[in-house]
Design goal:
This protein is of the alpha+beta class. The chain is built from 18 helices and 23 strands.
């Protein structure tokens, strides 16, 4: 399965329990990362950072939160796409500069890390993560001219940074929110209290993190924008020229990553997922007795498929809510056990029925294969797969943890070969055109994992990559021919 990007949060709320509010905001973003959690809190004199491996609720307790008093804070939930997964890679990342220094929380993945290591004067191997490199480079530029402050260090640093970064930063007197010029990862800002006379401000990867603390959504932060919040209120500036910023929000935020109650481009994600299912039903109809979704992200599309097809919607799988994501297992038998830990069939709903199973994506295919086997063991007469994203054929370099191109099932196998591998009765992926129609034309998207059209330079020139690129291009040509 795909692995989530990280979640970032920030709040300025003097007189309020900012550590507790940050905890709630991070809790709302827990789905974006389950490996570690951390926060940095400032009382305008010093910055305290507390972080550890594990879920938000296991890293922080009421006792630890009581000890984190201040006027502003940032938080982070991490899923690693690069670097180690231990405590040393947990965020926020802290750097000592001047009187109090700063801390940084990062969602995304940088694509020119080696160049940035050299710019920061770091030795190869010193950096634990790309976030570590970014913090060091900003710190280096700040130390070069301390009187200019952190925001000037960001203005100097960020134009040379390539890839995906949605950031929250904190120094002793401010919080900052920053988005890369393509806006690969989401970031929004909200207001606490009366918008005409705010009691505070908050920023978050997704709007439900604002809802949970009682903040009102204000707007999404624009690609290439720095938002600064302090006692004087909120101000905005661009660190790149307007013509250099072009939004390319990851299309999988709509398909899988974002919570269904999140608003992106002014639209609720749940509605987009239902429309994906409706369009997929028209595109790839099949006779069946039941439509079911793979919990949780496949359920809205399954509801839409059932609505458009007239086939009853029902539940065929129960999810274990205490397992955050499928284990990375070393062999097929272990992977099948991992699926059974997470999902269990409702046998009476399945027995003897022709079932349409709607899921959000197929990556390696091993999890899907185990799932189909489980449904057949439970007595399903037929299993028809419908996927609410196009074939996943290209690795992501911007913050999704995807395997090498040769490990992506759709990059090296035709539809018939995938059907044979997964052992289902039929398979259809939504077309890229229908996916875009379901989302709407509210903004620009990065769909490189589906099309191979990368918005920035990425490392695609290895011999292995070239071989699989040729194979994937051949399959794309086959699929575009009439009758295929």
């Amino acid at each position: 399965m795909l692995k989530e990007a990280c979640g970032v949060f920030g709040i300025w709320a003097p007189g309020q329990r900012v550590a507790h509010l940050t905890f709630d905001g991070m809790f709302a973003l827990q789905h974006r990362g389950q490996e570690s959690a951390g926060m940095a809190v400032s009382d305008e004199n010093s910055i305290t950072v507390l972080k550890d491996t594990g879920l938000v609720a296991s890293v922080f307790s009421e006792r630890s939160l009581q000890g984190l008093s201040g006027t502003h804070a940032i938080g982070h939930t991490r899923y690693s796409t690069a670097g180690s997964t231990g405590w040393e890679s947990a965020q926020p990342v802290y750097r000592s500069v001047g009187e109090a220094g700063f801390a940084l929380a990062h969602n995304g993945n940088l694509t020119n890390t080696e160049d940035l290591v050299a710019q920061a004067g770091m030795l190869p191997g010193m950096a634990l993560t790309d976030s570590d490199v970014l913090a060091e480079l900003i710190a280096s530029n700040w130390r070069a001219s301390e009187e200019d402050g952190l925001v000037q260090a960001m203005r100097t640093t960020l134009p040379s940074v390539e890839g995906a970064f949605s950031l929250t930063l904190i120094d002793r007197g401010h919080i900052y929110a920053v988005r890369d010029p393509h806006g690969f990862r989401p970031l929004c800002v909200g207001v606490l209290g009366d918008p005409e006379n705010p009691s505070g401000w908050a920023v978050a990867s997704e709007s439900p993190a604002l809802d949970i603390i009682g903040a009102s959504f204000l707007r999404e932060i624009a690609p290439g924008e720095i938002v600064t919040i302090n006692a004087d209120g909120i101000r905005s500036e661009r660190y790149v020229a307007a013509g250099e910023a072009e939004e390319k929000l990851c299309i999988f935020e709509y398909v899988y990553f974002a919570r269904p109650d999140t608003y992106l481009h002014g639209r609720e994600v749940h509605g987009a997922r239902r429309r994906m299912g409706q369009l997929l039903a028209a595109q790839a109809p099949v006779d069946a007795d039941l439509v079911m979704g793979v919990p949780d992200s496949g359920v809205p599309a399954a509801e839409g498929f059932a609505l458009a097809s007239g086939i009853p919607f029902g539940h065929g799988l129960v999810k274990n809510r205490y397992i955050a994501r499928t284990f990375i297992a070393p062999d097929q038998q272990a992977r099948e056990r991992a699926v059974k830990r997470k999902l269990n069939p409702l046998r009476e709903n399945i027995l003897g029925k022709r079932i349409i199973v709607v899921d959000d994506s197929i990556v390696r295919g091993t999890t899907t294969r185990a799932l189909v086997g489980m449904l057949r063991e439970a007595g399903a007469a037929e299993v028809h797969l419908r996927i609410s994203s196009p074939p996943f054929q290209w690795p992501c370099f911007y913050g999704i943890d995807t395997p090498h191109r040769g490990d992506l099932l759709a990059a090296t196998k035709s539809i018939d070969e995938i059907i044979e591998f997964i052992a289902c009765d039929s398979l259809a992926f939504i077309s890229i055109e229908n996916l875009r129609e379901a989302i709407g034309e509210a903004g620009g998207f990065c769909d490189a994992c589906l099309t191979g059209n990368y918005p920035t330079k990425v490392p695609l020139d290895s011999p292995t990559s070239k071989h699989v690129v040729a194979k994937a291009e051949s399959l794309q040509l086959q699929r575009s021919l009439p009758g295929v």
